[in-house]
Amino acid sequence: MSVIRKQYDEEFKKKAVKLSYASNKSVAEVARDLGIADGMLYRWRTKYTPEGDKTRYATLEEENKKLRFENAQQAIEIDMLKKASAYFASLHK
Fold first, then answer.
1. What is the spatial distance between Cα 43 and Cα 31, in angstroms, rounded to a whole number?
2. Shared-domain flag, residues 49 and 73
3. Which domain holds residue 19?
4. Long-range contacts of range 19-26, CB-CB < 8 Å, 24 or more positions apart?
5. 50-79, pLDDT tens digit by residue?
6. Rounded to whole angstroms, how far apart are CA atoms 12 and 39?
7. pTM, whole model, 2 decimals?
8. Read out DSSP for 4-41?
């Protein structure tokens, strides 16, 4: 039996982080009040500032993900071009 993971939208995450910084309660208590795991709230705090903006870490993480995707696409294109050039070279022999 698989466990269905709940997905939280970005706005909820930002509000949870704001609340965790503004509250006198501990992060674990705020997380329990929101019905989420405290580790999840700590992870969100690395992505968002107390004002709700993305942190430098989150921005770099997104950029890294984008570049890895582009790199994978280019590797596929290079592989296809190598195979095509080998095919066409074999036709000329």
1. 12
2. no
3. 8-54
4. 20/45, 21/45, 21/50, 22/50
5. 988 888 988 999 999 999 999 999 999 999
6. 16
7. 0.65
8. PPPP--HHHHHHHHHHHHHSSS-HHHHHHHHTS-HHHH
